[in-house]
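User: Quick sanity check before I run a bigger batch. Here is a single chain. Can you write out its predicted 3D structure?
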Amino acid sequence: INLTRASVGANSQRQGPLAVSGTTHTRPFFLFFGIARSVYWLGADGACAVVVTSAERARDLSQRPVYLSAGGIGTGKANRGGMWSNYWADHSECYAKYLSADLYKRAGLGPEDIDVAELYDCFTISVITQLEGFGFCKPGEGGPFCEDGRIGIQGELPVNTNGGLLSEGYIHGLNGVYELVEQLRGHAGPRQAAGA
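Assistant: Done. Predicted structure follows.
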C-alpha cells in the first residue's frame, strides 16, 4: 500500500507496487526480524523542520495553522529508549500500546476520530503493531486490517499517504509529520485523504 501511494509522491525513492515474492524470497537483512531489505526503511539525505507556536500567534501567519491537541514521547516497559528493540519480550507490540490511552485522553479524542495516520514504518511490521497499539484494530488483526484495503487513500484510515519511510526515505519520521501537515491543510494533491 505504501509503495502504491509513493508513486504519486514527488519525493519517493521507491515507486510502484512491491510483490509479496519480493519480500519473502530474498536473503534476510536483519536476522532478528527475519526481514528482507525490501521491507526495511530507505536511507535518505534530507531534512524537515517543524515550527511550533501558540494558537494566537499562528492566526497571524500566512499558512493555515494545524493545531496540536496532544503529544508525548515514550517507549515501553523494557525497551531501553527505542520504539522497537530486541529487548522486548513480545515483538507483536510497541510503544503505541503504552502511550495511546494517555494521548487520546489528553486530546479528548479516540481512534474513531482519526481521519489519517502517518505511522513510523521503519519495517512493514511497524505499521501493523502501531495500528493495533493505537486501537485502530484489535491485537492480532493488524495484518488483515491492512490487507482489506482499510489503510488505502480511499480506505477507512489512510496510512502513510506519502509512502512512508519504506518508500519516501528515512528522515527520522519527520517526513511523516510534514505529510500530516500537508494532509490537514488539504495540500496533498493526489495523495489527499478524504476528510483529513
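Confidence is low (pLDDT under 50) at residues 28-37.

User: Great, the batch can go ahead then.
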